[in-house]
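User: Hello! My lab partner asked me to get a predicted holo structure for this protein. The small molecule is pyridoxal-5'-phosphate, SMILES included with the sequence. Please write out the structure tokens.
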Amino acid sequence: MLDWEQIFATRSSRMRASEIRELLKLLDQPDIISFAGGIPDPALFPDVAFKEAYSDIFSSAQVGSALQYSVSEGYKPLREWIARDVAKIGIDCTPDNVFITSGSQQALDYLGKLFLSPNDTALVTWPTYLGALSAFNAYEPNYDQLSLNGNRTPEAYRDTAAKTGGAVKFAYLSADFSNPTGETIDLAARERLLALADELDIAILEDAAYQHLRYDGEAIPPIMALDIARRGGIENTRTIYSGSFSKTLAPGLRVGFVVAAMPVIRKLVLMKQAADLHSSTINQIAIEHVASRGFDAQVAKIRAVYSKRRDAMLAALDKYMPKNATWTRPEGGMFVWVTLPEGMDGAELLAKSIATEKVAFVPGKAFYADGSNANTLRMSFSCADEAMIDEGIKRLGRLISSAIRAAA
Ligand SMILES: Cc1ncc(COP(=O)(O)O)c(C=O)c1O
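Assistant: Hello! Below are the structure tokens for the protein in complex with pyridoxal-5'-phosphate.
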């Protein structure tokens, strides 16, 4: 047997299968109520619209170019559609500022590659999107906790980065309905982050994967929009905005995008030429076809369903959870974040929950760059109907109450 570890690059040492993913593989059993997957409900996919789109493409003269190689920047009409869509939320840009990726996950990989030399520091919220940590890990960074309440000075970040032999390069966050907490960053915190980024002279990576999934409350301008307003135009901004069609149309087509100043876009194009040349031509055309004919109606449809599920989950948590558990009350997205009393372990609870109550969720510690806060859980309401949500939370409340009693 070859000793592969000796030959693999050092960057591969941080690529590990998570124990949670292994546990979640057990979820195929049909009798499990799952709040684990952070995925859209397939019943809501606009499958008829996609059937029409592909059928139109195959019955038109466009079929040749749809099946052909294409440019690395992405399909121009789709970039034009995105530029118009983001303009509605204050992101004033040209289609040239829009770069298509194979899902917004690819954007995270490219941005990690573009900014992080080994030992550089990435600022991330505690907790943060697990897939961002996986994407950045390959570039061997250190992580430092991004504080959004302004209680850390720029020097504190700089000193921590210098101790580990690198520089702070960017702050990564989701401002709206984050994965995993469902929380939204308020306007003052967005402004503070822009000021901090100015002082540190770093980029801000704004992950807007859930941007369109607001169910109530007032929309807050994206950090990118605030940056453009401050700087008088996108070319002077330090924010890099990534978006996705995965949560609104369908993730299987793998179409996401980045909006940024041209020097960033030009580098991303070179990276894409080296990595996969371009995202799927036909899928980009199909996404543009469906988005330009019915994006708003599709978003209205999924918001109506998910908001009821969110309400059902919050109501069930109020009804069944013990008093010493707390949770977020998200205004959008797909997640509620539950915090249990100190000392409890979400991974242990998951094993018990699957075995005895047949309810699944994701233990929270995987979302912390330092693996802390084992007493947290991520619960997704996107794929269960209201009756299942009530039943699942009832069982989970029972299990958690008895675990708390046993620990007392
Ligand atoms: C916060 C966040 N960013 C990015 C992604 C990646 O999504 P996609 O590559 O499908 O656009 C996800 C997927 O769950 C996510 O939750």
